[in-house]
Amino acid sequence: MSGLSPPRLPVAVIIFCGAAFVLCMDKTMAQSPSSPIVGRLVDPVRLRGVEDVHLEGDWAFLPCREGKRLTICSIKNPTEPKVVSSFTHPDLDQAAGLAVDGTTAYVASQGNHRLLVLDVRDKSAVRLIASVVVGSPEVRGVLYKVAYRDGYCYVAHQAEKKLFVVDVRDPRRPVVVGSAVVTTEDDGPFSVLVCDGYVLTGTLFGRRNRLAVVDVRSPVRPRLITQVLDPAISQLSGDLVGHRYFTVAWDRNAFLVFDLRDPAHPKLESKLVDERLGQPNRCVVTGDRAYLPMVKGDGVAVVDVTDPRQPRFVSSFRDPVMRKTYGVAARGDLLCVGAREGNSLLVLNRHKLEQKGEAPPTE
Length: 363
What we know:
- The protein is mainly beta.
- The chain has a domain at about 90-230: YVTN repeat-like/Quinoprotein amine dehydrogenase (Methylamine Dehydrogenase, Chain H, 7 Propeller), CATH 2.130.10.
- It has helices at about 10-30, 355; strands spanning about 35-40, 55, 60-65, 70-75, 80-85, 95-100, 105-110, 115-120, 125-135, 145-150, 150-155, 160-165, 175-180, 190, 195, 200-205, 210-215, 225-230, 235-240, 245-250, 255-260, 265-275, 285, 290-295, 300-305, 310-320, 325-330, 335-340, 345-350.
- The N and C termini lie far apart (about 70 Å).
């Protein structure tokens, strides 16, 4: 009994169709409506060691600690974030802190104790305006975070245990004009938050750590006025929303809320200590949710802050590309997350994190 055989396709056509099928599958998976991942960018050179994420409109500023650079990415099309420029310079050691004011960026260079002033008017061609040594070059130790307000930068110097004030009103001639000791114990300053005429700095690496308050109403005469102590306090990096400071302590697995109605005397309003937070080291709040990048969890934890007096763990989302997440920033429905060991920037739909995240265990 005879029959017709199906036509044979050339091997090249079969391979091509198979490749096309795989590409279509990849594209479909990348755009899966159930995934919170909107876009991703991995670059082992220009995103090496992402330390923080700072958003200005369609621009994401990423200080990269190990990469010794400031990288600027465009997220105008959030499905395809892309590097626009990556600034390096002999004056820039490990990039630990960043503040942006309009067309000027200030970068704390960790190991060589320098504050760099950068012209970021042209995002594709960042230019060094000036740099200044902060503290004594003979003191071993590092600079950490920096904040800007009204012509002055406030810089945390961990080794000298001081908050330094740098006058940058003339960006071509930055000058250190004052400093205040924030602790006399074995901890040192890390974070810097400006609230009205005060700077709040969280310390780390001590047997006990603190939230120190420095009066900078006269920037050339800063002075320590008070401090808050609690076993859950360490590092304290977070977000100021209204009169509340939402912050985290990575080595305590803690999320804390401070009442800053009187910024000279902050009050610890509530705290959530939970291993499911995955050693969080940054925090951003939008709406009734706080989003915490997890150093240990390689992802993002979600905390319900509908009632700030009783924060509640909701879920977490992990992805291999988010290895050792460090930075996070929010814009509308989107989160931009930087991963220090993943050398990556991910754009997430924050609403879908709870759909795909890990639900808290039932009792």
